[in-house]
Amino acid sequence: MRSYQEKINQLIMHSVLLLYTLICMFPVYLLLSNSFKKRKAIFKEPLSLPSEETFSLTGFTKMFSRVDFGIFFYNSITVTLITLFLVLLFGAMAAWALSEYKFKGNTMLGLYLAFGIMMPIKLGTVSVLQVLNSMGLVNTLTGLIVVYTAQSLPLAIWILSEFMKQVNNELKEAARCDGVNEYQLFFYIILPLLRPPLATVAVFTMVPVWNDIWWPLVLAPSSGKQTVILGMQQYIGQYVTNWNAVFASLSTALIPILIFYIIFSKQLIRSITSGAVK
Amino acid sequence: MKKKFPYHIIVFLFPACFIYTIFMIFPLFDTLRISFYTQDLMGSNLDNTTGVRTFTGINNYRILFFDELWSYHFWNALKNNTYFFILHVSIQTPIGLLIAAFLSSKELKFKGTYRTLIFLPAMMSIVIVGYIFNLILSNLWGIPQTLLGAVGLENLYQPWLGLKETALITISLISIWQFVGIPMMLFYAALLNIPDEVLEASKIDGSNGITTFWYIKLPLIMPTVGLMVILTYVGNFNAFDLIFAIRGLYAGPEFSTDLMGTFFYRTFFGFQHQLGNPTMGATVASATFGIILIGVLLYLFAFQKRITRYQY
Fold this sequence. Notes:
heterodimer, A: mainly alpha, MetI-like fold, 13 helices, 78% helix, globular, B: mainly alpha, two-stranded antiparallel sheet, 14 helices, 2 strands
């Protein structure tokens, strides 16, 4: 009797989850499958997979002949990687100082840095533009990098200091007794221990930076400094009636994130569920 | 022996504090300051200070809240944004809870696959999501007609994104579709943290799956639900990308999908015949800042303090 009831429960749960998974995947499937089809097939049989007769790469060839997506990818990759490096390095350094050393104003500084977790930097756009302009950083990748770094640091510092507090005290004391100075202690002993939380922070930093449109739109509206998302948006704006090209450009912008997610989803989900973010 | 001044603390803290202060804290508060000024718009560029600014006190706010030319758009965006938020909380939270509750059940198979796929949309760029749904819901392509036709409900179809009455709801649903994975994940993590003894005890006391969830699990994960609500609030009042991708900067039809983010962009950078206005832009941004701050403070002082936290 009991197992019968359990089987019914399982059935209900699986059907709900399956249905919802299908709802989640359907638009992604439509996008990817239609970007490899002939124009006619897109309209005639939008729901089917590309077959031998309907397969075509016209969208991609048209798109790559009109715009240099290579430059967009170069810009996005440069901005994302440099931001990531700065956030991990500076974030870890600050988190270490906050969690390891007792000094006056420690708590206040922690709160000051945490303020940015809740307050979106977007609201400071009017002034950011002035600041960057006075430094000559408007329409440069450097401008994007500094803004993204500032925006990502608060969460990074917060997550990392939670982990720093758990580092074994004896380890630190032993190292200090051996005459290791504070810099060596941090860079050679503490940082290598922090690989898992650093990976978590890396994902939380990279995805929003890669996906953002606001700052590229505000800071670098044209002239070869577009990121992939902005470049795609401008391209679609121009060729909105060419469905092949629209699908192709959306897929091109989406595929890197899909690959990234397929590779890192296990670690990402484990780090969320193990309490990296609470 | 006199202790050396701890220079290393400063070295560790300086880079992060410097970048954060210059490019985040300063601009946020400088924007508040700019909102008390007015600027000659002719001959000035958006990204510099060549236009002469004069101090006007709270006049910009008076214009924003009460002047006919501005107040309609401000209250309209605020109303839409509030609606956008309410829809998110009331639809996203239950779906997230339900999926998380199912996923946390012990005997279930394929958990990992469900979790990965349901979280996937949250990783995608909002702009891409916006364009995909623009195509899917467009009249030309006919996907909803086909799907509704398959179950004989073809008559229900309307160009949802193009109608004043349905555009905002449709856009909210798209946004909910994309971000359900986030509450699901947070709730799932919180449910996993409930110790087995608690659940065993309730089982012995004769509680079934539904009563256990309702009376035991849900109260225990209430802090996470609260956190999710405030994260959604901040995200919603900061939203821009989805409207921009689907309806453009005019947030049509007839501004029915206008949110604080799109209103801010139009004010600051200008649109149609209206010149971009940095000081009014700063005023809109500061008003949004205030709205977000009120929400966060309410959460911290009212909700956070009252709710019981269980230590296990």
